């Protein structure tokens, strides 16, 4: 009998159903048996990969799948379907360490090689990588590579992306051929390295180039005009000088410009108004000066504008960004310049604004009364100006506000009770003004507060218990006001507190005993033995790191880090009685200042166990009795002042007090050992050390990080030294 298959493709329902069932069975067959679709790894490439793996340090679980011949099982490896040759290798962020072995250069069919964000180390980039002539993308970023860029890489004529960023020891003069070795190169990222010299001229003419990042190197020279439709440019943190170009060839394409922390001079060219695709512009930390051209109006696509840390002068630019229905400026930073005059009302028309930094200028007049129109504001910094009047009540319209900083102005009036409407507020700094009255009871509603600085005002009255609702409080300064009355017991019960400064007031009575119910910051002693005490010379040495992140066109997120000593300052008050033993049982305490009070009795013996203590000032009191014997055991202690008390007794040299010259002046009953068995009363040293309470130009709150992030691989980092008055870290990211 003859077997016969009769396939009838008439459009009847039964046959269509049968066809669908057959197709479904075939799909299930393939899914159930992946070996049907498996591609065998080419034997030669398999050997090369095994040799590469053998040169890594230690076994790596991420590459445990590198067994057998099925290419799909090899993590990070893609093969060509017909030949089995390796065409893609992506081992990024796998914590691999070792060297990039030459066996990798035998993968001659590779089109993509990504070894980024690992721990590969080598004094040179393997020159044999130039043999991989089919490469389209090469990413060796964020490793430990050094040396120079090998000239053999110029053979990669088809390369579209080259990323060697984040290899701090990779440097030297950038080869001239980088600008013309591949007519297909679209993305070049050499940031965070040690390159020097001038930018190769060919990069300004490379037709295919769209993304250029040479930030955080040591490039010098001037910046020429680019002759291609560049989309992304990051040259931040170099030594590039001269005037700014106009980017004529990029008018419709350039989206990100970051030239921060260079040496550009001259005016801000009005031709930048022509950059209609511009979304982020960072020109901070240069030498730009003069007035902002009145005709300069940026694109309504602009999301972030940073002109801070320059020498711009003249009136505040009232129309720096178009305010149309399409405009969406989220971050505006004009701080640290020389702008003068009033804050124009126009600024309150930037309805999408979420972060406004105008600090450290010479602005005068009152804060615009309709600032509450900026309902999306999350951060506002008007500190270090000459603003007057009161804080507008309309500020409560900024109901999303997370940080309000208005220190070092001439503001007056009282703290408005209505501020409790800002129930999301985390940072409130109105220090160094002329604000008077009492702390309103209604501020208990600001339960999100974490940093509060009311210092250097004319606030008065006893402390009310509204403050004990601030359960997230980390920093509190009421210094240099007119507060009076006893210290309430709840003042020392904040669970997250790091720093309390009550100095320079009229508090009286005893220091509460047995109620120091602080969190682990005060109770845990961590001894690192580093002796790094630069930021502990006074309580004013703390910093805040603020992050404002632009996540999209209409979204900003906020975060901050607090860098402050764990400390208490109750100096210059009218406190009396003995120092509580429980205060000296706070083993995590780094800073304690009780000077200029009426304290009496002996220094508590528990001081000997305050191993984290770095600075102690008990001067100008009526303390009596002998000095503690084991002060030398406090190895972290670098500043000590016990002067002008009534201490007595013999002080042996072996106790280590000789480390603190001048610390015992004004205690005539003390006798300091100067040689074996001989002592003398303490005297003022010929070269006294630094005083304990130095005047600090910068207020205690200092914003030093401001990050702007949109969704792009774009990093700009400007980090000043910790000891600088105010430092920031700018990070701009965006998607092209």
Automatic annotation (TrEMBL):
Positions of transmembrane segments: 701-723
Q: Which GO terms describe its cellular component?
A: plasma membrane
Question: Where is this chain primarily localised?
Answer: membrane
Q: Localized where?
A: Cell membrane
Q: Does the keyword Mitochondrion apply?
A: no
One Pfam family name from the record? LRRNT_2
- SMART domains xref list: LRR_TYP
Q: Which intervals hold domain Leucine-rich repeat-containing N-terminal plant-type?
A: 42-79
Please report the record's description of how this protein sits within the membrane: Single-pass type I membrane protein
Q: Which domain of life is it from?
A: Eukaryota
The residues the entry assigns to the signal sequence are none
Q: Which UniProt keywords apply?
A: Cell membrane, Glycoprotein, Leucine-rich repeat, Membrane, Repeat, Signal, Transmembrane, Transmembrane helix
Q: What family, per the record?
A: Belongs to the RLP family.
Full protein name: Leucine-rich repeat-containing N-terminal plant-type domain-containing protein
The record lists the lineage as: Eukaryota, Viridiplantae, Streptophyta, Embryophyta, Tracheophyta
